[in-house]
């Protein structure tokens, strides 16, 4: 089945058609700049422009950087505060005229990695961590997602973890990969203390830089890069739309 998968982020809104049987992208990915301020109405109109770019007429899957309960955003850490309590699924459907299925962006990336990537056919406890402006997490137990875990908001060294070791912090504080890696190791150690995972999967832009800081990572569970690197969010959003569509039929 073909689906349009969209990854809504603080700086870009990226989409691509996805073959949900194989997890492969069909054609070119398209990226639009996230409008500022990223109000619900402005983001919905950018999503509409993305849908029109693909001339897409089917269901749309959207990864979104907030906790999502039945399509409704319940948090807004790195996005406009007006998103809290916004029914993103209904808003997107109204503006695009298409059925839209919304889930947390890290959960979307996790779904893609578990189905087609590094977590494929793996049992046990697996935690995917995406590093970008914020830190997103997706927790799986024997392949089953525990949604909306938001472990980027754990407290670490007196700070919210994503204010201590996100990629935005690395850039802002001009940290070397080594120094940032030590911080990230502390973060993973905390996750390991709490959840004793069997595997950590690293998503987001930093996953392609893993070799620059892997020597700082001392957790018992191995840390491996996401197979789909930056595309996992798009692929997982498309998968989510395919699953929801199948459930409704
Ligand atoms: C948000 C999460 C999101 C993560 C990655 C965090 O600030 O709270 O919902 O998954 O950023 O975008």
UniProtKB/TrEMBL annotation:
Gene3D superfamilies: 3.30.420.40. InterPro entries: ATPase_NBD, ROK. CDD domains: ASKHA_NBD_ROK_PPGK. Pfam families: ROK. NCBIfam families: PolPhglucPhase. This is ROK family protein. It comes from Aeromonas popoffii.
